[in-house]
Specification:
By secondary structure, the chain is an alpha/beta fold. The chain has helices at 4-13, 47-55, 84-94, 103-106, 113-121, 145-156, 188-192, 208-217, 227-245; strands at 27-29, 38-42, 60-63, 97-100, 126-129, 135-138, 143-144, 165-167, 173-174, 177-180, 197-201, 221-225, 250-254.
């Protein structure tokens, strides 16, 4: 059976795009020398997911997003504050190890966050990428913005997104939608490359006027969804990857994080 530190090193050693000195992909709690038999993989290590992982007898929880609500390591600010204290106690009592897998998985080819999101939406014909590799544009048969937004809603509704927001003329024709890694909303570079529909997230679109409204004035449609929605397929792929790489392990995919719901 592998040790936590071996699993951690496996991901880092295969991610040349990651700066080991600056990455957030560190061990957040527990003993990295602990041997692993049962693993939980989830988008975010919420208290609900952590309790379930302990109940399932997991030694390791692999999370994509922060455990203690700070993106940058070492996530110390809220550990002993309300909410964080409950997690801190649970982790100490259970010995559960938390390993973050964010920087490595965002750009993991084919099955990571960006490509997993595209695959979940059925986008397969890559037309262009941003210079930094964080965004990608895809070729699709020409359709209207309204119809494409409906297609996206059909894809994301089963994973907990009950609506999508759309900006732009509903009847405008599009054939080159663009998306980014998780909450990373594609920028003007992609519109210059021909993108006519920008798919982003509420928390990754920065200011309404700086990105979404500006993109519409530049002739592109805009569709926004929740951060967790864009990364759902990628994290499912991560759980499957862990099982394929270490078939002797028991792997549980957990997604108990709260989903926003819409009042119409």
């Amino acid at each position: 059976m592998p040790y936590v530190k071996e699993i951690h090193e496996h991901f880092l050693s295969r991610s040349p795009w990651v700066d080991r000195e600056k990455t957030v992909d560190t061990i957040k709690a527990g003993d990295p020398s602990r041997q692993v038999k049962t693993v939980a993989v989830g988008w975010m290590s919420t208290i609900y997911d952590l309790k379930k992982a302990v109940e399932l007898g997991c030694e390791l929880f692999i999370t994509h997003e922060p455990t203690f609500w700070e993106h940058w390591a070492p996530e110390q600010k809220f550990r002993l504050a309300r909410g964080g204290l409950e997690k801190t106690r649970l982790l100490k009592e259970s010995g559960l190890v938390i390993m973050r897998c964010h920087d490595v998985w965002d750009r993991w080819p084919g099955i990571g966050i960006r490509d997993g999101w595209a695959g979940g939406l059925g986008l397969s014909e890559l037309a262009a990428e941003s210079g930094d590799g964080w965004s990608a544009m895809y070729a699709i048969p020409e359709t209207t913005l309204r119809e494409f937004a409906g297609h996206i809603l059909e894809k994301v509704r089963p994973i907990g997104q009950d609506s999508v927001q759309v900006m732009g003329d509903p009847e405008m024709k599009i054939s080159r939608p663009c998306l980014g890694v998780g909450c990373y909303t594609p920028g003007m570079e992609m519109i210059e490359k021909g993108a006519d529909c920008m798919i982003g997230t509420f928390d990754g679109s920065w200011y309404y006027w700086e990105q979404r409204e500006r993109f519409v004035e530049c002739g592109a449609g805009v569709i926004t969804v929740e951060h967790g929605t864009t990364e759902n397929w990628g994290i499912r792929n991560l759980a499957e990857y862990v099982l394929r790489t270490w078939p002797q392990l028991t792997v549980h995919y957990l997604d108990l994080y709260p989903r926003p719901w819409t009042v119409y």
